[in-house]
Amino acid sequence: MIATALRIVAVTATLGIGIAAASAQSAEPARPQLKTHVTVNANIVRIGDLIDNAGIVADVAIFRAPDLGTTGTVPVAAVVEAVRPHALVGFDTGGATEITVTRAAREIPISEIERSLAEAVSSRFNAGPAADITVTFDRDPRAIQVDPSSRGDIAIARLSYDARSSRFDATLEIPTGATQRGLLRLSGRAYATAEVVMVSHSVDRGAVLRAADLQVERRPRAEVGRDAIVGIERAIGMAARSVIRPGQPLRSADLTRPEIVQRGQMVTLVFEAPGLTLTLRGKATEAGAEGDTVTVLNEQSKRSVQGVVVGPGHVVVSTTVPRFAANLPAAAGTGP
């Protein structure tokens, strides 16, 4: 009986030891693990940024972070040496040889800076609508990277502008942090522009322009004459008066209505009078666009008449005075 009781106690003790060991294993902290790709928000890199499960040394700074919005690399060997004084050894590197570290940032694009300057020039110097003002810089600035916590818009702290030369000099306030703002000085030109229509390639005389032949660009308003074509739809379907080269704004004088009757072309000549319509064939002695007055030769009668071009190969001769039958040609072939 006593022996049986002792065996029960022994088994219970053994089970207790096993449970305690299992509990000890479950309570053992996870092994530190090296990361291979890291993004940091501060200007320093801490141990915890590079190593998971770093414990009480996670907040210890060991490296300087890359510049805002940029990425750098650090050798794993350098990380091992940096954490050695903090008693963090034997962590799992996963076989990596280097770690990439990216500094998080919020980008302020150049377009936002241009828009702010255009709005300031427009409102302060009455330079026309901001949407029509083009801004160029003496030195091409790059997109500005600021802390992700930065809030607020760009502000114009100082702006000088010469309307005659279109030159400006400005100091901008840029949000760089949650409460911080930095100064950026820029200079360049800000000038009013207008959309102009140009050909995208050389166009021969008489060629009819299609949408594929045209492009729209903005040019300084001072360089755009009053007769410049504004609106691509005004050029489509028109013909070139002479050869047109690319790079120059199209002007009204460059275009004409397309000729739909060619010199020497056989056309249908329609004679119209009150109560009478007579159709003949004739030969155009000059070219003309729709609405133009051209001369047509009746090759049978050898008489020339003038009529208005109303369509491709169609010329109409009209009169409000009726002609008596005795005055009309004896046959359709003789013509007026």
Helices, strands, pairings?
Layout: H1 2-27, E1 33-34, E2 37-40, E3 44-46, H2 47-50, E4 51-52, E5 61-64, E6 71-75, H3 76-83, E7 98-103, E8 106-108, H4 110-125, E9 133-137, E10 144-146, E11 155-162, E12 167-175, E13 181-199, E14 214-220, E15 239-240, E16 255-256, E17 259-261, E18 266-273, E19 276-284, E20 288-289, E21 293-298, E22 303-311, E23 314-318
Parallel strand pairs: 2-7, 18-23
Antiparallel strand pairs: 1-4, 3-5, 6-7, 8-10, 9-13, 11-12, 12-13, 13-14, 15-16, 17-20, 18-19, 19-21, 21-22, 22-23
Describe the structure concisely.
Residues 194-256 form the SAF domain. The protein is α+β, with helices and mostly antiparallel strands.
| Radius of gyration, in angstroms, nearest whole number | 43 Å
Query: Could you give the distance between the termini?
Result: 148 Å
- Beta-strand content: 35-45%
Low-pLDDT windows of residues: 1-24, 323-328, 330-336
- What's the rounded overall pLDDT mean? 84
* DSSP strand count: 23
- The global form is elongated
Q: What oligomeric state do these chains adopt?
A: single chain
Q: What structural category do the secondary elements indicate? A: alpha+beta
Whole-number total of structural domains: 4
Total number of helical segments? 4
Share of helix, binned: 10-25%
